[in-house]
Amino acid sequence: MSALRALDPGVGTGVGPGSTAAASGPPGGTSLASGNLFHPISAEDEEQQPTEIESLCMNCYGNDMNREVVKTDCATARIPELDFEIPAFSQKGALTTIEGLISRAISGLEQDQPARRAKGEAMAGKIDEFVAKLKQLKRVDSPFTFIIDDPSGNSFVENPYAPRKDDALVVTHYNRTPQQGDMLGLKTEEPEEKSADPMEDLRNEVLQFNTNCPECNAPATTNMKLVQIPHFKEVIIMATNCENCGHRTNEVKSGGAVEPMGTRITLHITDPSDMTRDILKSETCSVEIPELEFELGMGALGGKFTTLEGLLKDICNLVSRNPFTLGDSSNPDRTEKLEEFSQKLDWIIEGKLNAHFILDDPAGNSYLQNVYAPEDDPEMKIERYKRTFDQNEELGLNDMKTEGYEAGLAPQQR
Known about the structure:
alpha+beta, five-stranded antiparallel β-sheet, 10 helices, disordered N terminus, 22 strands
């Protein structure tokens, strides 16, 4: 709220020197008896109201400076003619008059004047000059403009002619700026700009949905997150943690389409540090270790995003915990071979045995970290190959129609 008042000695209702102050009762009240200044007080009068008495300034014998003013803490008061301003939050809120605000400003300026004069400061003389100008305003020696700017909209300057319009008073309403909102503690969160890419929201949050534990079938929660793998593509990781039995599982799904060509990645494991390489094994990927005459078929272990060591340990657990291969009824020769396989797998993990690790993914959605990226890795070989008919059949691509399917569906819609 902005209130602007031009003050002039001739404006307003004034009482001249030597005149008697006129007394009037409150609006709607009983008129006062002649010669009585106050309304008679009676316990039986249920409509007792305060008595309003029009007063006058004993200096100028006028009411021009007597307008009531409500100034809140956050309001700024200005008098442009003197380049004078009372900043927001520099004074407490007050219910006063225009004269009261100026008097308060004069008192504040004069408070430290004795100390300034004792120190011989030149500022004291300038303040005296300014105080003299403020005192001239109190006497209304010349018209001036009084402005209250309150971003909270809670300040007020009285209109003595209400409900009639006061030509000297202008009230303007405006929208607060963001800075004013911050000053008032009314800052609101700006709406986030929606990305043109609908997948952008998935990259920035973890989605949750209810499921059942695959071990104990107790209710559990699965977290899903879209992750960008450096120098590869986006994948969807789903992790389930059962609070009932403690079972944990994770599954990885490719975030992209089937690649035009299959991918075969061969890593020559020569150092224990190779175990820390990140690996993405999709559900369509098979694993081979020629030195151990081992092959893990497509779909085994599902999709995983882990390290090379983690995947080899999962393979070891898959073999050692299989009751059909190492149970009481198992063949001793088979048991001996599987124990030997597990031991050699441990040697590879510990760096005691060099071997070749091969990922063969006809869908092209598997990945093995290149620790020399963006340069070529001397121990890793990546081959792109054309899928066979059988591989396309297993991926369901032979019967997948990707062109002209809209025309094929048109007759069915009729």
